[in-house]
Amino acid sequence: NLLHQKSYLSNGEFIPWEGEMDEVYSTISTGASYKPTFLGTVPHMNEATALEVLESACKAYGKGQGVWPTMKVSDRIAAMEQFVSQMKTKREEVVKLLMWEIGKSLPDSEKEFDRTVEYIYDTIEEYKQLDRDSAKFQKRDKVNAHIRRGPLGVVLCLGPYNYPLNETFALLIPALIMGNTVIFKPAKHGVLLLSPLLEAFRNSFPKGVVNVIFGRGREVAAPIMKSGRIDVLALIGNSTSAIALQDQHPYKNRLRLVLGLEAKNPAIILPDADLDLTIEEVLTGTLSFNGQRCTALKIVYVHEDIREEFNKRFAQRVDQLKFGNPWEPGVKLTPLPEPNKPAYIQELIDDAKEKGASVLNKRGGETSENFIFPAVLYPVTSEMRVYKEEQFGPVIPVKPFSDIDSLLDEIAASNYGQQVSLFGRSIKQLAPLIDTMVNLVCRVNLNSACQRGPDVFPFTGRKDSAVGTLSVHDALRSFSIRTFVASKEN
Ligand code: G3H
């Protein structure tokens, strides 16, 4: 079924869009010969319309005096509960679009939907707790302080294509419940799947509180930033877009940033690692959703003493993975939503081969129009592009190491600092490594792959990987400010 999104949401209304439309295609092809599938259309909005939408969000915020930022906590919760219950009725539609638009497997698409619903309920519970806490007074030197949490203003939210529902909502939901008004722009791939939910937004929140724009970032998001009327830029995606948008804002010191950016999470395999477990975890960590996760393992460091066995068994295991359409049972690898991704991954493979690496697995690099089979590259060196770039796709660089201290120096020199996975049995050996690693990254995974969830845990990174922290608990704080009422005892 084609989906034509012929309007945008602004000021609590669906405003018909009469202008140019952008066509949305899936890289999935079901015919005998390859042909991208046409899925529908979305408005190609322009600067003037984007600024009208901005006006709607600013009006609803009313410089902090609007209906939403001043609403009672219980009423804001009721609005969010209404939204989530209407959202749940759209599960089938959204899951289907997740599969078609971004090629996410059926189990992973269902998981993304259910996890997002759970995230909303957890956020509501956390918000209630925050409210209970703010009922407590603090007292010092005869001053009573009643601490509250207040909204920040108008938030511009941009989510990524790999989690177009979950990560867009990981920004949107906490921003909303704290009393901010929001403009969000869906990701280019994964734009249609938010359409079934727009009515629930319109029905559940006062007018102008949730607004949606479509189109190119530089044509719609950049002018909104340039207006200087955005208080928070919330983005999960790449740092180039984040910096470009941030740079548009004329008063940068007033702008709060909540950013989830790139990472190059390493797996470190120590000589005493349990190889059965390690191979399965590294497989999931590197190739879940074809490696298109900021939390994916993007480089594997294997100790010289076990590299032969690891490389052989891991390469065999990669070749056993099944490629197919997202709804087919047992499929682990699926079409890539970005049409230029197979060519980019091929460039990384060619570059590594020219500089001395080999492809360890038989199927590595097999290509079709919408996919490239993951290549295990060994030995990778620091001169290779695959070592330096965040591949965000199916290619696995493996680098040997013998001296753990030099490896720690290498990891400390990285521009990224999100997570690491450590594989080994001896606690005596792992303990000092953990102590160092927690100062280099923000999450150390023991004998398990890197991942974001469960979403109640802090999700952040050091250096170029993130600004601010997203977890159910932290996100409410990221999108608000502590204020208080002080009264003096005489
Ligand atoms: O792209 C980054 C996502 O937050 C990854 O989430 O680790 O749960 O797949 P995940």
UniProtKB/TrEMBL annotation:
Q: Does the keyword Oxidoreductase apply?
A: yes
InterPro entries in the cross-refs: Ald_DH/histidinol_DH (IPR016161), Ald_DH_C (IPR016163), Ald_DH_CS_CYS (IPR016160), Ald_DH_N (IPR016162), Aldehyde_DH_dom (IPR015590), Aldehyde_DH_Superfamily (IPR050740)
Do the record's keywords include Oxidoreductase? yes
Name a Pfam family for this protein: Aldedh
> What SUPFAM superfamilies does the database record attribute to this sequence?
ALDH-like
- Record-level Gene Ontology MF annotations: oxidoreductase activity, acting on the aldehyde or oxo group of donors, NAD or NADP as acceptor
Query: Gene3D superfamilies this protein is in?
Result: Aldehyde Dehydrogenase, Chain A, domain 1 (3.40.605.10), Aldehyde Dehydrogenase, Chain A, domain 2 (3.40.309.10)
UniProt protein name: NADP-dependent glyceraldehyde-3-phosphate dehydrogenase
Q: What organism is the protein native to?
A: Salinimicrobium profundisediminis
